[in-house]
Amino acid sequence: MKIFKKIIGIFLSSAIIMIPSVAEAKTKKVSKVKSSHISHKKSHISHKKSKVSSKHSHHKKYASKKAKFQKVSYSYGPRVYGDDLEPNRDIYKYAIGLLGTKYRFGGDNINGIDCSSFVQHVFELAGYKMPRTAREQALYGYFVRKENIKPGDLLFFATYASYPSHVGIYIGNGKMIHASSKGGKVEITDINQEYYVKRFLFAKRIPANIKELTPQDSMESIDSYINESKNNKEDPIAKIIMEKNDKN
Question: If both were cysteines, with which of 79, 117, 138, 154 could 108 make a disulfide (CB 3.0 to 4.6 Å apart)?
Fold first, then answer.
């Protein structure tokens, strides 16, 4: 009997020792599973954040590149307009130096020059090669709407011919400098005079900081532009702006 009681006592003691161990083992297992689950969840969240961060970084990089893009011109059909381009303001400064030079049709020197020869000389002083006639000079630069002209822009008129036959250089405040047959010299004239308003064809802008002059248009595109004007068609860009203003 005493032996039996002793065996039971040993069994109970072992059970008491084992129960906490088993419980501890189960706790560790559950803790390990939870820890693994939490670690996996954290990894998933971290991956998701990394993906979002990468996407945001890509968007930010693209936005940064987009922000650096600067609009300089816009086009309508076959023509490119340069209202947003910076003009070469040095051009009219050189032009002022020739004020008072005698006018002579076909003349190309200091003893007498005509309108296109005057423009050619001015550009030569600025370091650029410009063709001789007004019609050829009209091929250079970008079209600019009259309300957006700036000093240095070239203004073309139809005087003795239907194509560009007279050219002047805008100097600001509604005035241009040109070799005038009427005035008999290089002079400053108000472009809002009825004579020039009726004969005005278009303005062209030679961009600043260019290394050499290259034609931007062809004779065909210039003639097409003039024909549109003759048919009393509005400047397409001006028409779009006017329509937008009306809606607002």
Answer: 117
